Amino acid sequence: MLVFKKNIYFNPIPPKTPGGPKEFRDAADPSPLPFNFIHRALSNAQNLFQEIWETKDRETSDRLGILFPHTARLGGATILGDLSHRLFTGLTQPQHWFSMNCYHQCFLYDCLLDVVEDYSYNGKAERRELFPEMDGREMDFNRFLLEYFFNTTFLIAPERFNRMTPAEKKQLLRSPDFGDDFPQLRQFADPEDPTLGKVINCIPPSPEDLELKLLEHNPYPVV
Predict the structure, then answer these.
(1) 142-180 pLDDT tens trace
(2) Is the Cβ–Cβ distance between 218 and 97 less than 8 Å?
(3) Burial class of residue 181 in the structure, from the number of CB atoms within 10 Å of its CB (0-12 exposed, 13-18 middle, 19+ buried)
(4) What residues pair up with 149 in beta bridges, in sequence order?
(5) Is the distance from CB of 113 to CB of 130 less than 8 angstroms?
(6) What pTM was estimated for this model as a whole?
(7) Distance (Å, rounded) from C-alpha 1 to C-alpha 9?
């Protein structure tokens, strides 16, 4: 299971009335259920790379540049396919928790963005097929990122990032919306994470960078 700012596997919302029953979704929430959204995005990526391996597509680099505009700068089909496999496996592994570094988060961002664009261009009927819980409504991707991603600092232009001092880089991650409910989750958005600068500066990942970090304990408080 993958660690996010909020638990995507079990995320009840406060009851509308004190003492009322727990609810698990606001009917007016402008985003799909987080697990469904992420699962759809990573499933699409898995299917794509399976097709690439089977057909030996000669135009792979062009397709990857369109579908993964940020991550394709970090490597070719082999690296992106590895990230895809690790993330999908981590998402669906029920026995263990894994944290992601900036390479994983950047790849996932591209996968989600592709789903958002597909959803936005479709009519209501097609939207309902993708995410029935949305009932064809518009999707607020920025809200989803704010609620579930620890940060999207990896999207900053390298020129700006490389001019920053260490103190300025740390300041990027300081937000009143970041981890206030669960301070122990701050460790998963480390401003000194070496993969942050590597992703921003388009440096291909090392074998160690591709690995998800296995956690010893459930990162979320048990209620």
Answers:
(1) 999 998 998 898 999 999 999 988 888 777 765 444 444
(2) yes
(3) exposed
(4) none
(5) no
(6) 0.83
(7) 8
